[in-house]
Amino acid sequence: VEAVIQADIVSIGDELLIGQTVNTNAAWMGERLNAEGIRVHRITGISDQQSEILRALDECAARSSIVLITGGLGPTKDDVTKHTLCDYFQSHLELHTPTLERITEFFTSRGLPMLDVNRDQALMPHNAVVLENQRGTANGMWFERNGTVFVSMPGVPYEMVWLMEHEVMPRLLAYFRRPAIVHRTILTQGVGESFLAKKISEWETSLSEVSIALAYLPSPGQVKLRMSMYGVADEQEMRRRIQVKEKELHSLIGEHIFGYEKDTLSSVVGTLLAQRQQTLTIAESCTGGYLAHQVTSTPGASAYFNGSLITYAEERKSAILGVPAALIGEKGVVSEEVAIAMAAGARKLMNADYALSTTGIAGPDGGTEEVPVGTIWIGLDGPAGARAAKFRFGQNRERNIQMAAQSALNLLRKEILGLNG
Amino acid sequence: VEAVIQADIVSIGDELLIGQTVNTNAAWMGERLNAEGIRVHRITGISDQQSEILRALDECAARSSIVLITGGLGPTKDDVTKHTLCDYFQSHLELHTPTLERITEFFTSRGLPMLDVNRDQALMPHNAVVLENQRGTANGMWFERNGTVFVSMPGVPYEMVWLMEHEVMPRLLAYFRRPAIVHRTILTQGVGESFLAKKISEWETSLSEVSIALAYLPSPGQVKLRMSMYGVADEQEMRRRIQVKEKELHSLIGEHIFGYEKDTLSSVVGTLLAQRQQTLTIAESCTGGYLAHQVTSTPGASAYFNGSLITYAEERKSAILGVPAALIGEKGVVSEEVAIAMAAGARKLMNADYALSTTGIAGPDGGTEEVPVGTIWIGLDGPAGARAAKFRFGQNRERNIQMAAQSALNLLRKEILGLNG
Per DSSP, what are the bridge partners of residue B219? Predict the structure, then answer.
């Protein structure tokens, strides 16, 4: 088995140091490299000064075989990365004709004037492999020295992602001999990491016998379980072994599993509804539009999402959704009965197969002794009848809204699949 | 004037290197330090291995007066930061009684069993100033060596923020002599950085005469302009000079300014409505709930937000909002007339003073030659009548939804203030 390949990430830009920009690029690259068995050793954020960049390059070259650099490639005079790389690799700039053509086309097609600084973006270091950026005007660059690969990319996230996927990753995987790698990621919702760990402890122990590594990747409300195998057999055999273990996992915690790999609750529910040609509506109170936003953030949601209502004011719950004012008075607006009545009202009004509802106290204010902040009822009405579930989240408004939306989507997923018992 | 104080940030945790967690902590700290005139020199993300931590500490101590460390302080055996700091500062662990009492109370009040690993969190290095963490069980620690301050904090963002605000920043500002600093941040929406720069270029030049520095802080759809003065006069005089310049700025670009400092369009609109005891409703199509989510993410929104509708399916626009099917047929669902009819319908149904509406093509699919992806109409109905505005954003669904929500809130802000002409 080959040694672990180690990478360093260098993120260039004053905006990172003053907190103007959060370094999402490094996280994205870390995840992408990790999935291919390349270990990120360090992430370094520095200002766009030549001396800083040169120092960071020296440090990274001393410890890693791959150095991925983002930022500092814009057309303005503040952006010094390209010139610094020229110094570092004893290079000089040459006109890269295909790039000049691409940039010229970019400006003429938009009717914008092309400035000298734009033209200069077509000048590339003569000893770099030019990685043409089809999402912007700043190209990527690939250098090699003493077995270490240096790649420079623009800092705009979607340009960096495009270059990584289309140019950088394929070249890295061809350049470095790596063992075959198989991952399988299983997504759970609504149970904590320690609860899961307890439930699957024996299974987890058994993984080592077949050389499978397990990672817990928790995020608010969800835990991803990732099984990985690194070069212990051929790819087909590794896939087979992982499948066996995945089946076992299903028998242990199947009810908490909602999807795989890049699935989201929104995409999973959307696929289920689209397959069945069924529709969804929502009546939101405490989630204030966030649940609908989650549903509609999946492209193509218009195929199954009829629309929804957000009823903040109590009298709107009555007037539009038909929730009897007496019911609200008797049971309280945050109650099982009102959650169900909201869902039933929305389902009828919007003429949908399923309706979800939320009513609760997102906080920070509005809690009482009987109904403290974080109490949220989720209602559901559908072909098999109505039900509601009560949740008790925490004190944080944003988190409560997110958790309620997740829980609602998972309740619907289980309902469609007949898992709600 | 004192020299610039330089800080280093060390972010510890494998989850950062594999991209499981985005390093929002470093950005938050960078912004907070920068506001006090402390310059972040480098952000270093490393794994939670003792050798890595020790190396990073040595590197940072060689160049900075402040080293802020986050992560690796949890109760599990993987978290080695505290033990590593003990090594680094030739310290030993001692029981910190107030912390033991706090942790014990934490567990007993929740009826949870307290384990040895939890009790160990009350053991603190004997030569550290203990920064008690009132938001969690892992304390902060403050060490000094050769004029450099080292502060270790837990990696949980809201615990780190609490410690920074209540313990770390006050101590840093007392420890390091700094000049008085005055900032003023002015928020604009809907115009680009280069457009603004052109409009205010003379004004910007004049700032240097009164020793005011200007920073452009762009984010999607918005540009923040931050004026800063560092110790060139007493605080009152600096405030006075900045006020004079702010007035001049208003006369140049006042129409694009929506707020100051930490304002958001949602909070600004909310304050305006609450002051006037007026109410808002929304009819969303392409924004799919995101606009309502923005409005309701401001605590207290129930005082002015009646509720809203999301009508994805065309027949729901007709059935519920009363948009005539013939109008949709004639003008198209993405049109000025439908945007206005949606707003008017929602305003009536929800009995609100103002109504906003959105109808457009968020993408990635659904565009046509006449109505390409990114085309969005915003409608508004209110006491002064109805209007609509057309926007042409880009190809990115998420971005289009965000930009449309911002534009809608700013249209409403101007309408309430009588600025829409």
Answer: B222
Residue A316's pLDDT band (boundaries 50, 70, 90)? confident
Do B30 and A22 count as a contact with CB atoms less than 8 A apart? no
Which pair of structure tokens corresponds to residue A240? Answer: 């087979």
Q: Which one of A308, A311, A316 has the shortest CB-CB distance to B289? A: A308
| CA B73 to mean position of chain CA atoms | 26
Lateral strand order in the sheet of A213-219? A213-219, A222-230, A181-189, A257-260
Using an 8 Å CB-CB cutoff, list chain B residues near A397: 297, 299
User: pLDDT per residue over A260-271, tens digit each?
Assistant: 999 999 999 999
Chain-chain contact of B20 with A217 (C-beta, under 8 angstroms)? yes
Using the beta-carbon criterion (under 8 Å), do B40 and A20 form an inter-chain contact?
no
Q: State whether the Cα torsion A106-A107-A109-A112 is positive or negative.
A: positive
Judged by DSSP in three states, B179 sits in coil
β partners of residue B355: B281, B381
| Cβ contact, residue pair B26, A23, below 8 Å | yes
Q: What angle do CA B283, A358, A322 make, to 5 degrees?
A: 65
CB-based contact B294:B405 (threshold 8 Å): yes
Bridge partners (DSSP) listed for residue A385: A382
- pLDDT above 70: percentage of residues in chain A: 99
Count of A–B CB contacts within 8 Å? 216
Neighbouring C-alpha atoms within 13 Å toward the C-beta of B63: 14
Work out the widest C-alpha separation in chain B, in whole angstroms: 81
Gap from B27 CA to chain A (nearest CA, Å): 4
Give the pLDDT confidence score for residue A77 in this predicted structure. Answer: 64
> What is the amino acid identity at position A407?
S
Task: Please indicate whether, in this complex, the C-beta atoms of A292 and B310 are within 8 angstroms of each other.
Answer: yes
Residue A342 has pLDDT above 60, yes or no: yes
Question: Hey, of A9, A24, A43, which one would you mutate to test binding to chain B, going by the most B CBs within 10 A of its CB?
Answer: A43
Q: For residue B351, which of B302, B307, B316 has the smallest C-alpha distance?
A: B307
- How many other C-beta atoms are found inside a 10 Å radius of the C-beta of residue B374? 22
Q: DSSP of B218-268, one letter per residue?
A: EETTEEEEEEEEESSS-HHHHHHHHHHHHHHHHHHHGGGEEEETT--HHHH
Residues of chain B with pLDDT under 70: 1-3, 76-78
Out of A19, A217, A316, name the one closest to residue B30 (CB). Answer: A19
Nearest chain B residue to A36 by CA distance is B18
Radius of gyration of chain A from its Cα atoms, rounded to whole angstroms = 27
pLDDT band at A177 (very low <50, low <70, confident <90, very high): confident
Q: What is the pTM of this model?
A: 0.88
Q: In angstroms, rounded to a whole number, what is the distance separating the alpha carbons of residues B370 and B360?
A: 12
Residue A1: pLDDT over 60: no
Residue with tokens 């989850």: B15
Identify the residue whose tokens are 């060390």: B10
Binary contact (B43, A39; C-beta < 8 A): no
Query: Residue A220 in contact with residue A403, Cβ under 8 Å?
Result: yes
How far apart CA A36 and CA A230 sit, in angstroms, is 9
With cut-offs at 50, 70 and 90, classify the pLDDT of residue A78.
Answer: low
Q: What are phi and psi of B36, to 5 degrees?
A: -100, 10
In sequence order, what are the residues at sequence separation of 6 or more whose Cβ sits closer than 8 angstroms to the Cβ of residue A107?
Answer: A113, A114, A118
**Chain centre to alpha carbon of residue B421:** 31
Q: What gap in Å lies between CA A378 and CA A334, rounded to an integer? A: 10
Contacts of A361 (CB under 8 A, 6+ apart): A286, A334, A367, A371, A372, A373, A374, A375, A376
A16–B32 CB contact, under 8 Å: no
Q: Are B88 and B131 in contact (CB under 8 A)?
A: no
> Angle A165-A167-A169 (CA atoms, 0-180°, nearest 5)?
55
